[in-house]
């Protein structure tokens, strides 16, 4: 039952109790029992009226709010959709504690979010990316292609940027081993270049395939395009390939998954051969059903970029 309905019933009961029953409880109770209103509810409403002279809610005890409605409106205007915000400095402006500002923001539906990485686009690219995305979307929509995506990435002997390797737990820093405490860097680390090609169906089962590389110039040289033509493999033309648009290419997510598997639990390679063996092992452990699920959204992502621009998809 809605609050407004409860208030309406309470008003009717009190009005009957005062004007009709002349404050005889049994008359009012019997009258509203016929409407299937619980006896206890009727008595409670009458008791509240007799005790407090009202049926409305009395002011409740508790810690009063430290900010007024006007201050909360100003706070929302100061921080909503803004960056470079310091809650400590804002708290000083309002003469309250920083946690008070945090609670007020949560109450108004404003939450902190970390910025997401995105490519830096030129004005020309911002204009061209949606058009290219639309062309590629129509190609995939109007033809029964099996999409294959290729990409390359360097893997070093160690990787401290993987989420599980960014920090460590300790009770006493002085007793923490140095190889755990410090992230060691090298100016020119040894690394290996890994190239993979993945089908949206996990295994190539169609004779009609469309290969979607990134826009590296090496992918569109005469020798490469001649090879694809000789093998009867369709290549996404340059004019249909959205430039600088990794958010439309789920293979970037595959790289993240592979990195987590290769470098998880603080694993480090001693040699390049050991690193190669580890990469090959972890590639086989990637769940192909997850890959297919990631690829299933490609057309939807391209449509979003075509309609709303490259920042519509993150």
Task: Provide tags for this entry.
314 residues; Nucleotidyltransferase, domain 5; 3 domains; alpha/beta; 47% helix
Topology (SSEs and partners):
Layout: H1 3-20, H2 25-33, H3 39-52, H4 69-79, H5 87-94, H6 98-107, H7 123-142, E1 146-156, H8 178-181, E2 191-199, E3 209-212, H9 222-230, E4 234-235, H10 251-263, H11 272-284, H12 288-295, H13 298-308
Parallel strand pairs: 1-3, 3-4
Antiparallel strand pairs: 1-2
- Biggest sheet: strands, sense, closure? 4 strands, mixed
Report the CATH C-level class of the largest domain.
Answer: Alpha Beta
Q: How much helix, percentage-wise, in residues?
A: 40-55%
Name the CATH homologous superfamily of the largest domain. Answer: Ribonuclease H-like superfamily/Ribonuclease H
What would CATH call the architecture of the largest domain? 2-Layer Sandwich
Shape: elongated
Number of strands: 4
Descriptive report:
The chain is an alpha/beta fold and 314 residues long. The protein folds into 3 domains: 3-52; 69-107; 123-312, Nucleotidyltransferase, domain 5. The protein contains 13 helices and 4 strands. Strands 2-1-3-4 form a 4-stranded mixed sheet, with helices on both faces. Strand 3, helix 9 and strand 4 form a beta-alpha-beta unit. Helix 1 packs across helix 3 and helix 7 crosses helix 13. The longest helix is centred in the middle third of the chain and has 20 residues, at 123-142. The radius of gyration is 33 Å and the shape is elongated. InterPro entries: Homeodomain-like_sf, RNaseH_sf. One of its GO terms (molecular function) is nucleic acid binding.
């Amino acid at each position: 039952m809605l609050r407004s309905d409860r208030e309406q019933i309470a008003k009717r009961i009190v009005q009957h109790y005062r004007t009709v029953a002349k404050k005889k409880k049994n008359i009012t109770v019997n009258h509203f029992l016929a409407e299937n209103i619980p006896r206890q509810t009727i008595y409670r409403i009458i008791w509240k009226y007799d005790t407090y002279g009202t049926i409305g809610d009395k002011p409740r005890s508790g810690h009063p709010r430290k900010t007024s409605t006007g201050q909360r409106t100003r706070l929302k205007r100061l921080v909503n959709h803004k960056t470079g915000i310091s809650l400590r400095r804002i708290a000083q402006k309002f003469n309250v504690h920083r946690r008070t500002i945090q609670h007020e923001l949560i109450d108004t539906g404003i939450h902190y979010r970390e910025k997401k990485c995105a490519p830096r686009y030129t004005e020309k690219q911002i204009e061209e990316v949606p058009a290219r995305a639309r062309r590629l979307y129509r190609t995939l929509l109007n033809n029964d292609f099996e999409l294959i995506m290729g990409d390359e990435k360097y893997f070093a002997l160690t990787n401290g940027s993987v989420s599980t390797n960014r920090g460590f737990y300790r009770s006493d820093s002085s007793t923490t081993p140095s190889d755990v405490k410090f992230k060691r860097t090298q100016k020119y680390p040894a690394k290996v270049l890994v190239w993979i090609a993945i089908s949206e169906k996990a295994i190539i089962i169609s004779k009609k395939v469309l290969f979607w590389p990134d826009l590296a110039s090496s992918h569109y040289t005469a020798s490469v395009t001649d090879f694809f033509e000789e093998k009867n493999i369709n290549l996404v033309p340059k004019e249909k390939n959205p430039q600088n648009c990794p958010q439309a290419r789920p293979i970037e997510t595959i790289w993240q998954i592979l990195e987590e598997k290769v470098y998880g639990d603080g694993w480090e390679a001693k040699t390049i051969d050991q690193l190669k063996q580890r990469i090959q092992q972890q590639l086989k452990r990637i769940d192909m059903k997850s890959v297919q699920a990631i690829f299933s959204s490609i057309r939807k992502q391209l449509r979003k970029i075509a309609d709303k621009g490259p920042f519509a998809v993150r």
